[in-house]
Specification:
The structure holds two protein chains of two kinds.
Chain A lengths: L3 E3 L3 E4 L5 E3 L1 E3 L5 E8 L3 E8 L6 E2 L7 E6 L2 E6 L8 E8 L1 H6 L5 E2 L3 E5 L1
Parallel strand pairs in A: 2-12
Antiparallel strand pairs in A: 1-4, 3-9, 5-6, 5-10, 6-7, 8-9, 10-11, 10-12
Chain B lengths: L3 E3 L2 E5 L4 E7 L6 E7 L5 E8 L4 E4 L2 E6 L4 E6 L8 E11 L2 E6 L3 E6 L1
Parallel strand pairs in B: 2-11
Antiparallel strand pairs in B: 1-3, 3-8, 4-5, 4-9, 6-7, 7-8, 9-10, 9-11
Classes of the chains: A mainly beta, B mainly beta.
Amino acid sequence: DVKVTQSSRYLVKRTGEKVFLECVQDMDHENMFWYRQDPGLGLRLIYFSYDVKMKEKGDIPEGYSVSREKKERFSLILESASTNQTSMYLCASSSEEERTSASGELFFGEGSRLTVL
Amino acid sequence: GEDVEQSLFLSVREGDSSVINCTYTDSSSTYLYWYKQEPGAGLQLLTYIFSNMDMKQDQRLTVLLNKKDKHLSLRIADTQTGDSAIYFCAETYSGAGSYQLTFGKGTKLSVIP
């Protein structure tokens, strides 16, 4: 059974703390994505990666960075958390074949709900 | 830029049909999708339709595509309480030689027993 695992389901952090959100997939997918989900705003793409050590900015990259040292792992980093980064963060992956054929199925993790106080 | 619009809420009685509507802007979209998000979970692909199709049926689900009006709908027959979820419409768009998904804001379907 395919799986995208986000290590933390719930986190509470303080303003200014550094936050790491980890995502691991076991499907040997080349492509990985980080979204944030907010009520009334839907899903917004933060960063994505098509290969190890490769990263591309999405629609809302400000205040975030990412790391892809291994194919199966894609980390989202908040260098200095702020209250407006309180959100649900969703990691997703897809295969290169899906991406280039535009059939586009993404496999999502269950989400990490981050609260910044 | 690309935009996908859908209403935020829909409430139906158990056993009735649900129709969730979506409009999109990218006329070059190759695929259009419906994803389902159950409470406390990530999104799962429910169904998708090629842009050269008008309709796709899969058990209780019917997807209708009107390319002229750029309108996509998802019909759920005999809606059950287990269908309560947020449904996201999404389209592909191409950029920098790759394809990305643009999601709508999601329609929260509430099924009344």
